[in-house]
Amino acid sequence: MKKDADNFLRSIISACGDAELSGIRAKSERITSEFVGDKVYFRGVIEFSNTCEKDCFYCGIRKSNHRLSRYLMSKEEIVRQAMWAFDNGYGSVVLQGGEVKDRDFIGFVVNLLSEIKKKSVKKDPKGKGLALVVSVGEQKKKTYEEFFQAGAHRYLLRIETSDPKLYSKIHPRNRSFRKRVKCLEALKEIGFQVGSGVMIGLPSQTIEDLVNDVLFFKERDIDMIGMGPYVVHKDTPLGKIYGGEWNSKKNEIFQLSLNMIAACRIFLKDVNIASTTALQAMNPAGRELGLMYGANVIMPIITPKEYRSRYLLYDNKPCIDEDALQCMTCLTRRVNSTGKEVALYEWGDPVHFSRRQAKTPK
Ligand code: SAH
Fold first, then answer.
1. CA-CA distance, 1 to 4, in Å (whole number)?
2. Residue 35 burial (10 A CB sphere; 0-12, 13-18, 19+)
3. pTM above the 0.90 mark?
4. 167 in Cβ contact with 160 (< 8 Å)
5. Which residue lies with its CA nearest to atom 12 of ligand 1?
6. How many whole angstroms from 102 Cα to the centroid of ligand 1?
7. H/E element, 75
8. Do 58 and 95 touch, CB atoms closer than 8 A?
9. Nearest ligand 1 atom to alpha carbon 99
């Protein structure tokens, strides 16, 4: 069985040439339509803090990047952006930031979640308010519980790669792959809709690794996938040692990233899949192509303009000179150019989650 799945996934991920690629696109499109529908959901991303306790070798906001000035947006600013998203029909917002574990920070996030939930529910004739998504890294189970109780119902935590050896290559010694997996388990136990994903084009990463990444999502029953190409950041250790080789493999990495979207859609079927910003950092039409390969979620950045240049996880990040309104207009146009429509005033929960819930014994 494993062998069949392996071969099947390998054929999708390594597809190349016009005929093969249009074949996987068509198949992926059929499955998208059948299992999750043709609409595209917006998640407004508020990159509310770039302070981080972690030192990931690839990431521009790593602790040791001293060229960066650190910020934490105020509660008022964050709530304002979230309510802007609500007023513009976004079903959902993501609070994303570096990883910080102290009580003040956790209390701040909990407080924010309750406030945004309360305000948006009050304004919503349906009484549901915004769907709240959190992405602030590895936290204690108790902290995740607090987030959940405060109104969050989705959490994003990428595994980065499902290969423990490759994981240890791109992270400092004190980091544990096991711990990250444990966090994903804790989130699921609490009842979160769980999002994960990987970076594509890491040093020495093979097609087999990518096949295993998709199998990892399946085994772990992941509800939402956010994957994208690894993109160099020049002030990071990985960018420095691997930048040259990466540059020579850019086209291949970009295509692999699209093929991974198709592989996830065709193999996992009913999950939500994001067409990520990193795709657009490599190709101006990257996010449209992501939708054409099977993604059904787009995450417009709604961080105020003045903070955007300080949340650069990688070089060439698009949209840093734009504000939330410009991003909305631009992304709506991009979605429409693929023949799809943006679903407004809907949460767009992953179909996979309801199926998973229905299967779980009460
Ligand atoms: N601190 C949080 C969220 C912020 S980082 C967390 O740890 O989950 C969000 C994601 O950005 C990471 O999971 C990683 O997959 C991605 N990322 C970071 N640096 C990147 C790079 N150089 N290229 C592509 N993606 C990157």
1. 5
2. middle
3. yes
4. yes
5. 158
6. 20
7. helix 75-87
8. no
9. 1
Q: Which residues line ligand 1 (CB under 6 A)?
A: 58-59, 96, 98-99, 135-137, 157-158, 160, 199, 228, 230-231, 233, 278, 313-314
Atom from ligand 1 closest to the CA of residue 236: 22
Question: Which residue type occupies 46?
Answer: I
Residue having the nearest C-alpha atom to atom 1 of ligand 1: 98
DSSP 198: B
Per-residue pLDDT tens digits of the chain, which is 362 residues long: 778 999 999 999 999 999 999 999 999 999 999 999 999 999 999 999 999 999 999 999 999 999 999 999 999 999 999 999 999 999 999 999 999 999 999 999 999 999 999 999 999 999 999 999 999 999 999 999 999 999 999 999 999 999 999 999 999 999 999 999 999 999 999 999 999 999 999 999 999 999 999 999 999 999 999 999 999 999 999 999 999 999 999 999 999 999 999 999 999 999 999 999 999 999 999 999 999 999 999 999 999 999 999 999 999 999 999 999 999 999 999 999 999 999 999 999 999 999 999 987 65
